[in-house]
Amino acid sequence: MSDKSKVVFVNGANRTEVEVLVGTSAMHAATDNLVGGIIGECGGDLSCATCHVFVDPEWFDRLDAPGVDERDMLEATSEEPTEFSRLSCQIPCTAETDGIVLHIPESQ
């Protein structure tokens, strides 16, 4: 089993693949690798909603359901949330999510 996990960020026509250590949040995967569109102002403390992503439908059901605090924060995103919205600070990179595709909203 690998100690790395891949995350694919799609921002408009740009597609960026990053590889991070298992256990890293998808938000940190983006900010540590300078992926545009993921701000993460709060550093992953679930208090700003600037790491909003749309999980590719193929991957959505593989994630644990969002908690109450995350659902509340999703209502404060700058772009209207959808049924596939998540905060990337709450998505851990694991063997099960290796290769996950996350779409970045046009506005954050």
UniProtKB/TrEMBL annotation:
Tagged with keyword Metal-binding: yes
Organism superkingdom: Bacteria
A family per Pfam: Fer2
InterPro entries (UniProt xref): 2Fe-2S_ferredoxin-like_sf (IPR036010), 2Fe-2S_ferredoxin-type (IPR001041), Adrenodoxin-like (IPR001055), Beta-grasp_dom_sf (IPR012675)
GO biological process: P450-containing electron transport chain
Entry GO MF terms: 2 iron, 2 sulfur cluster binding; electron transfer activity; metal ion binding
PROSITE patterns for the chain: 2FE2S_FER_2 (PS51085)
Keywords: 2Fe-2S, Iron, Iron-sulfur, Metal-binding
Start and end residues of each 2Fe-2S ferredoxin-type domain: 5-108
Gene3D superfamilies in the record: 3.10.20.30
Keyword Metal-binding: yes
Protein name: Ferredoxin, 2Fe-2S
Source species: Trujillonella endophytica
